[in-house]
C-alpha cells in the first residue's frame, strides 16, 4: 500500500448483476442501476443495446490499465500478462501514476463503490486530496484526445459519483478531473471546479429522471 492511501471510509463492496441490458448494483438485496447504464440508456446518440457487444482491444486495455493502477495504489504486485495489450496498458498506467497519482496529498479510495439513496450506484476510479481540494479522478484511455463536448458523459458520471459520495459520507467534493491518457504518451487533465460541477449535477438528475421514466414505460 502506498503511504498516501488513507482508510478514511469503509467503502462497501456491492455485488453486480445484469437485467435486460442494465447493470445493477445490489444494495441490501435491492437492485439499483449503475451510473454508466443510466447514461448509456439516456444517450440518444448511441444505440443502448449492448447485449451482443464483444470485448474489444480498447476495452481490454482500459480494464488492464485500471487493474494495474489499483494494484499500484494498494501496493500489490500486478499480474504480469505476456500480451501486447498488457504492455500498452502498463505504459498508460505509468503515465497516470507519474502525472497525477504522485501529486495527491492523500488518497482516500481507489475503485471505491458509492451509492445515492436507492436510486443509483457506481465505482469511483480515485478520490482524495489534490492541491488541498477533495477531488474525484476518472481515468480514460484512448487513441486520441476527446474535446469537452465528447467528454460530457464522463463529467456527468463523475458528478453522479460526487453527489453519491457527499450524501453517503457527508463530504463536500470540490472538483472532478477526467484524466485522458493517449496511446502516443500524451495526456490531458480536464478539470471541473465547484461552480461547473453544480451544473453537471443538475444535468445528471435530469438524466436520472429520464431513465426512471423510460424504465417505467418499459415495465408497463
Explained architecture:
Helix 2 crosses helix 3 and helix 4 (about 150-170) crosses helix 5 (about 195-220). The strands form two sheets. This protein has a five-stranded mixed β-sheet. A three-stranded antiparallel β-sheet has the order 1-2-3. The protein has helices at about 35-40, 55-75, 85-100, 150-170, 195-220; strands spanning about 15-20, 20-25, 30-35, 105-115, 120-130, 135-140, 175-180, 185-190. Mean pLDDT is about 90; it is low at about 45-55. It is an alpha+beta fold. Helix content is about 40%, strand content about 30%. It has five helices and eight strands; from the N terminus they run βββαααβββαββα.
Topology (SSEs and partners):
Elements: E1 15-19, E2 22-27, E3 30-33, H1 35-41, H2 57-73, H3 84-99, E4 106-116, E5 120-130, E6 133-142, H4 152-169, E7 175-182, E8 187-192, H5 194-219
Helix pairs in contact: 2-3, 4-5
Order of helices and strands: EEEHHHEEEHEEH
Radius of gyration over alpha carbons? 17 Å
Mean pLDDT: 91
- What amount of the residues lies in strands? 25-35%
Question: Would you kindly provide a brief summary of this structure?
Answer:
With 220 residues, this protein is α+β, with helices and mostly antiparallel strands. The chain contains five helices and eight strands, in the order βββαααβββαββα. It has helices at 35-41, 57-73, 84-99, 152-169, 194-219, and strands at residues 15-19, 22-27, 30-33, 106-116, 120-130, 133-142, 175-182, 187-192.
